[in-house]
């Protein structure tokens, strides 16, 4: 089996029908993160903490609604440029970057992440895209 360094990064994206200020707030404020950070309706995010600055840390607990399983998703910010981009390193060493591009009342969000080697690439892409789609839905509805 190949190691993470040989797997190509995965990129997902969404266009959110909201201005950059609202998108940024929904992406970074814990009270919003707990509303969108899950891949399917049988999961939720009961806890989130976030310090969105270079060197800051974040942690979100993702849990099955039936209580059967949960895990913490976290890392340290390598670089945060307000209303522009975020780069972080997950606890397992994988890298993630998010670019926010404002266009009036729309904001394009492009997220690129290093895949892990335990699950198929398409499963990872689908899971991360589902979370991004939930983010879009939440941001457009608040």
Notes on the protein architecture:
The structure is a single chain. With 142 residues, the protein is α+β, with helices and mostly antiparallel strands. Helices cover 26% and strands 41% of the residues. The protein has three helices and seven strands, in the order βααββββββα. The protein has helices at 20-28, 30-36, 121-141, and strands spanning 10-16, 43-50, 57-64, 70-81, 85-90, 95-103, 106-113. The chain has a seven-stranded antiparallel sheet with strand order 1-7-6-5-4-3-2. Belongs to the AHA1 family.
Number of helices, counting only DSSP H or I runs of 4 residues or more: 3
CATH class: Alpha Beta
Written as H for each helix and E for each strand, in order along the chain, the element string is EHHEEEEEEH
Shape: globular
- Helix proportion of residues, in percent? 25-40%
The class by helix and strand makeup works out as alpha+beta
- Specify the CATH homologous superfamily: START domain
Key descriptive features of the protein:
142 residues, alpha+beta, Alpha-D-Glucose-1,6-Bisphosphate, Chain A, domain 4, seven-stranded antiparallel beta sheet, 3 helices, ASHA1/2-like_C, START-like_dom_sf, SRPBCC family protein
Describe the secondary structure blueprint for this structure:
Blueprint: E1 10-16, H1 20-28, H2 30-36, E2 43-50, E3 57-64, E4 70-81, E5 85-90, E6 95-103, E7 106-113, H3 121-141
Antiparallel strand pairs: 1-7, 2-3, 3-4, 4-5, 5-6, 6-7
Helix pairs in contact: 1-2, 2-3
Entry summary:
With 142 residues, the protein is of the alpha+beta class. Helices cover 26% and strands 41% of the residues. It has one domain: START domain (Alpha-D-Glucose-1,6-Bisphosphate, Chain A, domain 4, 2-Layer Sandwich), CATH 3.30.530.
């Amino acid at each position: 089996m190949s190691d993470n360094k040989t797997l190509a990064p995965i990129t997902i994206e969404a266009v959110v029908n909201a201005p950059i200020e609202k998108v940024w707030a929904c992406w970074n404020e814990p009270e919003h993160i707990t509303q969108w950070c899950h891949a399917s309706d049988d999961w939720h995010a009961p806890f989130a903490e976030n310090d969105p600055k270079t060197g800051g840390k974040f942690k979100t607990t993702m849990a099955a609604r039936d209580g059967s399983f949960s895990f913490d998703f976290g890392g340290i910010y390598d670089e945060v440029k307000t209303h522009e981009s975020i780069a972080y390193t997950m606890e397992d060493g994988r890298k993630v970057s998010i670019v926010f591009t404002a266009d009036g009342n729309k904001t394009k969000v492009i997220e690129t992440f290093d895949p892990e080697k335990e699950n198929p690439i398409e499963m990872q892409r689908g899971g991360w895209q589902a979370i991004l789609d939930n983010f879009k839905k939440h941001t457009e509805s608040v």
